[in-house]
Specification:
Largest sheet: 9 strands, mixed
CATH class: Alpha Beta
Radius of gyration: 16 Å
CATH topology: Rossmann fold
Number of strands: 11
Strand order of the largest sheet: 2-1-3-4-11-10-9-6-7
Order of helices and strands: EHEEHEHEEEEEEEHHH
Strand content: 15-25%
CATH superfamily: Class I glutamine amidotransferase (GATase) domain
Structural class: alpha/beta
Shape: globular
Number of domains: 1
Helix content: 25-40%
Distance between the termini: 8 Å
Length: 231
């Protein structure tokens, strides 16, 4: 049985609907919480068979409000890439992945949006990435993937929404398994919140079934490419 470590940056942001897909495939996962009093960024030897870097709420990676553990997490992600361990970055996690792979980040205000991403190539995620899928972003700053990254999907402004580094590392600017309650909890957890989130919350509420449906092929492709079910 394979195992993952998922690094959380806030109490509210977690794997969401992705948990069910991992459990259904007998892929174990544990959460690491560096933001807690006793928490710390795990060592490479503690990562297991792969690393997931989750979102950060109002934390970013472009200098205005950097994640406190940013340097350590970039170093860990770099070591995972060197060791050919799978890495999945979501939201702020996609920025950490971009930095570790030699890319950069772009300063942008904290935002919350519920829209759609569009696939750029038919063979993305082994051909399983839907042509269009819900893009639920709650993030400060944006990743600028390195020049050798493959851009698998873009948002409505043609910015990278999903990129691939090498054969088994993926950066999602939006959470593919987002839940309405996660965003509601983020809004309550911090004083620093996006401007006028109510319309986007209502849109997200209507997208519940679509998020669940599109996550099925997304996870199929991810598991195949990360080889998380191979012995």
């Amino acid at each position: 049985m394979k195992s993952l470590v998922a690094i959380q940056h806030t109490s509210a942001d977690y794997l969401g609907l992705v948990e069910d897909h991992l459990e259904g495939r007998r892929i174990r996962f544990t959460y690491s919480r560096p933001f807690t009093e006793q928490g710390s960024v795990p060592l490479l030897k503690r990562v297991g068979d792969g690393l997931v870097l989750l979102g950060g709420g109002p934390w970013g990676a472009a200098g205005i409000r950097n994640l406190p553990s940013l340097v350590e997490e970039v170093e860990l992600t770099y070591e995972c890439l060197k060791s050919n361990l799978p890495v999945i970055g979501i939201g702020l996690g996609s920025q950490i992945l971009a930095l570790a792979a030699g890319g950069s980040t772009i300063e942008t205000p904290l935002c919350f949006s519920a829209g759609y991403a569009k696939r750029t190539t038919p063979n993305a995620l082994n051909g399983y990435l839907p042509h269009r899928y819900p893009l639920i972003e709650y993030m400060r700053d944006r990743p600028q993937p390195p020049s050798d990254a493959a851009i698998l999907a873009v948002d409505a402004a043609d910015r990278p929404a999903l990129f691939q580094i090498g054969g088994n590392a993926f950066g999602f600017t939006g959470h593919p398994g987002a839940k309405l309650a996660m965003v509601e909890d983020l809004l309550m957890e911090f004083e620093d919140v996006p401007h006028d989130p109510v319309p986007q919350l209502e849109t997200l509420r209507t997208m519940k079934t679509e998020i669940e449906d599109t996550l099925v092929p997304i996870m199929t492709g991810l598991v195949q490419l990360t080889k998380l079910m191979q012995t």
